[in-house]
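PROTEIN DESIGN WORKSHEET
SECTION A - STRUCTURE
LENGTH: 380
TOKENS:
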């Protein structure tokens, strides 16, 4: 049976081989920080369960340690309250609300942040504390502050970090407000996603400082952006290659809604294949175009629902060929999405890495290609 140190070394080898770990100093962090102290018990998805159910995996269970050193996200809380140790044996349904992000993603993001020794870093979303411990190992305790929204999660992370001997500054609070007392920072890394860039962050960064954050929304489409702060309250940046998603920051999550009831509306042919908004970047474009809507469905049968106005759109394959859409309500959701997808198609349907973002006091805009290219304002 392999020990924790052996499994850590094997994971570091695998992440070096696949090109994730290129900086020996971050490799040293990966080889040193024991992930099992941060995600001691975790949830495992019950295969084939609909809606998804989870069962707890605890120390001593078969495969527990191997699971921890597999490159996977370990869910550690459901619905903002259920933790694996609260769970009697058996399974439970719920939505993941805290986790230990998969090591390859944590380490890739630490590399992408381009943080240099001596720089001061603010992390949003302490979670289990695993990524904060990696950061503290590499940068030194005094250079890292991490904020967690959930006091129970933050308390567990503080105990785990203390047990490993690290001592970054830990705050329980809303990371969207940043750390007004602790700035200015050189770098900000968020391991929860946001609907727009919180303005307090920009005022707590040094000029030229960098922010690495996933932009998402109420349809849960995502893109990872690296922004440079260009002045007080201003930043610009580009989206990065790959497919990164994070749970959305709790204050940015969509409001609770009733069970969907589809209503009649006006029908017309659709000018685009609805399946396009089920693709990684297509769903992102649709979310930019209709940020107050939630997207459901699959393939040709897509549903958009904006609870605040009661607006709905639903698509289907046409009777002969093509597709139809039924829309109702004041926000013509499909009109918005269709126009946006056509602009994206005209640009050659690029992946998010061809998109950029500009933030200023005047607003926040995501664009394709260049700042004056086709774009959409983010909801603020
Ligand atoms: C994916 S987990 C973080 C993973 C973590 N970095 C790790 O290595 O374990 C996301 C965390 O963000 C937290 N979170 C959500 N909204 C937040 C907010 N507004 N401020 C700070 N933390 C937040 C969640 O409670 C959750 O623990």
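SECTION B - SEQUENCE
RESIDUE ASSIGNMENT:
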């Amino acid at each position: 049976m392999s020990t924790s140190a052996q499994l850590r070394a094997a994971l570091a080898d695998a992440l070096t081989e696949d090109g994730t770990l290129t900086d020996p100093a971050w490799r040293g962090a990966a080889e040193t920080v024991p992930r099992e102290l941060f995600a001691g018990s975790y949830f495992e998805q019950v295969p084939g369960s609909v809606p998804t159910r989870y069962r707890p995996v605890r120390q001593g269970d078969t495969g527990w340690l191997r699971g921890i050193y597999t490159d996977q996200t370990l869910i550690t809380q459901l619905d903002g309250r259920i933790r694996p140790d609260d769970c009697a044996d058996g399974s439970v349904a719920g939505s993941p609300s805290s986790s230990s992000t998969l090591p390859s993603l944590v380490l890739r993001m630490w590399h992408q942040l381009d943080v240099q020794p001596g720089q001061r870093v603010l992390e949003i979303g302490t979670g289990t504390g695993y990524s904060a411990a990696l950061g503290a190992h590499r940068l030194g305790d005094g250079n890292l502050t991490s904020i967690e929204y959930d006091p129970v999660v933050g308390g567990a992370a503080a105990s785990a970090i203390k047990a490993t001997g690290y001592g970054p500054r830990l705050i329980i609070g809303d990371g969207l407000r940043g750390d007004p007392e602790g700035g200015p920072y050189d770098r900000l890394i968020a391991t929860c996603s946001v609907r727009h860039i919180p303005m307090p962050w920009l005022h707590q960064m040094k000029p030229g400082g960098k922010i690495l954050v996933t932009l998402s929304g109420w349809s849960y489409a995502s893109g990872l952006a690296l922004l440079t702060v260009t002045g007080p309250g201003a930043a610009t940046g580009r989206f990065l290659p790959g497919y990164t998603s994070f749970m959305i920051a709790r204050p940015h999550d969509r409001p609770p809604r009733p069970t969907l009831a589809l209503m009649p509306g006006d029908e017309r042919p659709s000018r685009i294949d609805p399946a396009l908004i089920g693709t990684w970047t297509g769903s992102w474009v649709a979310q930019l175009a209709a940020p107050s809507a939630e997207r459901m469905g699959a393939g040709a049968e897509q549903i958009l629902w904006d609870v605040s106005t009661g607006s709905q759109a639903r698509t289907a394959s046409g009777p002969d060929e093509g597709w139809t859409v039924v829309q109702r309500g004041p926000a013509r959701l499909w009109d918005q999405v269709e126009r946006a997808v056509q602009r994206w198609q005209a640009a050659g349907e690029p992946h998010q890495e061809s998109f950029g973002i500009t933030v200023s006091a005047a607003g926040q805009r995501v664009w394709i290609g260049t700042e004056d290219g086709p774009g959409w304002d983010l909801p603020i």
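SECTION C - NOTES
The mean pLDDT is 96.
The pocket of S-adenosylmethionine is lined by residues 98-101, 106, 124-125, 127-128, 130-131, 147-150, 153, 174-176, 191-192, 246-247, 249-251 (CB under 6 Å).
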